[in-house]
Amino acid sequence: MSEPTTSVSEIMLLLLPLMMIGVAMIFVIIAPFVMYMVLRLRPGVALGDRSGPINVAFEEQLESSSTVQSAYQRWLEQTDDATRAGFECAARWCQQNPPRSQRDTDITMPQFLGIQEKGVSAWSFDPPYEDNQGVYVSSRTEIQFLADSVGMAPEEGGACSIQSNLPLPKQNEVYYWEAKMFNKPSTTNVVVGLSTKPYPSFRAPGLCKHSVGYFSQDGSKCYNHPFHMQSYGPAYVHGDVIGVGYRPRSGSVFFTRNGMRISEAFLGLYSYNLFPTVSADGPAEIHVNFGQAGFVFIEANVKRWGLAPMVGTLAPPPAYGQDKDSILIESAYTPSSSSQLRNDVATEELVRVPSYDASVPDTETPQHDRLAAQGICMATLRPSQAPPPYSAALADSCSPPPQGASGPPEAPSPAPIRGAIHALHGWFHAWHRLRRDTSAGTPEVPSTELVGVLVD
């Protein structure tokens, strides 16, 4: 009886360590997976630096869950009254002004034609100054935030933000832009990111729905709500250049700092059109580069990740000194007053159509000879010449035949009648021109008249 009992106890002593090893191995294998699922299904948990991108589309599906609502309530209980008041003010504004659909914010045909003509210069920052008085824009992309502006107080929203006039395109694989901290005090928190339209001008990107942002104060990133704040990269200071890259197909967003790529920050941002957005809670000056100059991030230059070509199809203005075929410059040589007209006539610089029927061409000028050889006869009214008086021309045309002439009177030839009509016509125009020149308060319209031309 002792031998079987001894054998069973020996078997148990051998199996017990094996069972303990097996349980330990199962725990080691399953425990990390369980912990990962717990952390993954709990939004807003602070992760380590460069812990990976956040799928914003997936997180937005969980916003109605109890986990997110409990995290929201805990954040409201822990935050101060001024920050809570600013958050509630922004929440009311977003509820009254929901983001526009993708169709309403797409680049329209006139905007597309403007991009074709201007290139990347079509993008600019045009703030509504009547509503956003804390920011000033010069040269289209140089942003200056003023100190103690409306919206910068925590209870008012905590920042002053500005968006570009056009969204990021979606034709290419990657689009990239940079913001340089041209003047940034250490006490100012600057946020660079993307957001939809409309967006509250008193809120930083990443703190309201459908927006993401990279914060300069502690290098954190945030999306949609303040309690989603997570550590991301290094803080940036005065002189740093922060870049934002966007892939339309996957909806991913990454950031760079001084030409060094940090990592992918967000995923799933493809449901809305995104606008480049910059904000600050104090005085600062930010210069944005959409591609009108070279990027600090070398890969973006090599792969041409700018928003559009640097130069469009619109022709540049003419170079200085090229005044050929210029209507404005040529019009400066035309006479501008009646006194100048009389001076030009006296100096034979201006040639007018004669007011009488000229029959003998002027053969003193060689130019007249050349034109006469081509079948063109030109006659010029000299200052010393004067048209024949109307009374003499009329007397010649209507005088009776001389005494002693036999036979019935001949019909007047058409030439004298034609000369009389032309003389009357010329006399009337001369009288009208003289009256126009001498009338007070009626300037003469500048004109340049050619000589009379008779083509054989």
UniProtKB/TrEMBL annotation:
Residues 399-415 have a biased composition (Pro residues). Residues 387-417 are annotated as: Disordered. Its main location: membrane. GO terms for cellular component: membrane. The chain crosses the membrane at residues 12-39. Pfam families: SPRY (PF00622). Residues 102-295 form the B30.2/SPRY domain. It is found in: Membrane. Keywords: Membrane, Transmembrane, Transmembrane helix. This is Protein ssh4. It comes from Malassezia equina. The gene is ssh4.
